[in-house]
Design a protein that fits this description.
alpha+beta; 4-stranded antiparallel β-sheet; DNA-binding; single chain; 8 helices
DNA sequence: ACTTCGACCTGTTGGC
DNA sequence: TGCCAACAGGTCGAAG
């Protein structure tokens, strides 16, 4: 579920509920996420106040007096603020309890997510320090992408999904952005001209902004527990549409595999 | 420095 | 209906 738009929507959705709230308790039901949830997390967090919640890539950064809690939602994670008396369900692994008896609850069926504590500058943390640019920031430009692609023979789709180049472009939006830009996902990154990179950069920003705009709907549907985001799904041009007609030219959408991920594209519109 | 691939998990879906 | 394989929105880290 979580690509950058969902993570950003989550951040915005919980920010006002948790900032300036004091933590009174932490309940860890399952510590085996991607990396173990810190053993003494309850001891570490109790009594601290969350001063802000920021996002870097798909990581959420909860700032407190003595450090930062890093949260990644992996493939299936979600965060919700619920009343403390709402019973935890099967995959509700961590509760952060606040002084007003609300709870920040992490749910993650596949457990590819993470919750880590760091006392250093979080941007210097091992997992964050080598991340690429933010796709919606001004420094994500055609020139940047073009320069980064020199000598890179990897396919452009895998290239834009590489978080060391640019963060937050997941499989759905990589497919969608390449369609909008008219670029075939298999082209070697180094073979794209600067103007085509400009089209791609523009498409990535557009797709992510649109998705954030409809992210609220996506999130609400998801957290309600009925899975797929109905609203956003209707905006998809290629993802999940194998064999269906291209919305621009009618040619059946193709499905291939790149690096064990599904790539959908129009053989005619994308060259 | 770059590329490929296995690994981590559970839940859902589609074919037989 | 049951069973099994394939697949799912991520990304790290080892090995080549």
């Amino acid at each position: 579920m979580p690509e950058l738009p969902e993570v950003e929507t989550t951040r915005r959705g919980i920010a006002s509920c948790i900032t300036n709230r004091q933590i009174t308790d932490v309940i860890v039901r399952q510590r085996n996420l991607r990396w173990p949830v810190p053993f003494r997390l309850r001891k570490t967090l109790a009594g601290q106040t969350i001063s802000s919640i920021q996002r870097r890539g798909k990581y959420l950064l909860l700032s407190m007096q003595s450090g930062t809690l890093l949260i990644h939602l992996g493939m299936s994670g979600s965060l919700r603020v619920v009343p403390a008396n709402l019973p935890a369900e099967k995959h509700d692994h961590v509760d952060i309890v606040f002084d007003n008896h609300s709870v920040l609850r992490l749910r993650d069926p596949r457990r590819f997510g993470a919750m880590l504590w760091t006392q250093q500058n979080p941007l210097q943390h091992k997992l964050l320090k080598d991340l690429g640019v933010e796709p919606l920031a001004k420094d994500f430009t055609a020139e940047y992408l073009f320069n980064a692609a020199r000598k890179r023979k990897v396919a452009i789709k895998q290239f834009i999904m590489d978080s060391h180049i640019v963060v937050g472009v997941g499989n759905i939006y990589a497919n969608e952005a390449l369609f909008l830009a008219g670029i075939r996902p298999t082209i070697a990154a180094k073979n794209l001209s600067l103007p085509r990179m400009q089209q791609l950069v523009t498409a990535i920003k557009l797709v992510l902004k649109d998705a954030i705009r409809s992210g609220g709907t996506t999130l609400r549907d998801f957290t309600r527990g009925d899975g797929r985001p109905g609203y956003f799904r209707q905006q998809l041009n290629v993802y999940g549409r194998e064999g269906d007609p291209c919305k621009r030219c009618g040619t059946p959408i193709k499905l291939i595999r790149q690096g064990q991920r599904a790539s959908y594209y129009c053989h005619r519109c994308q060259r």
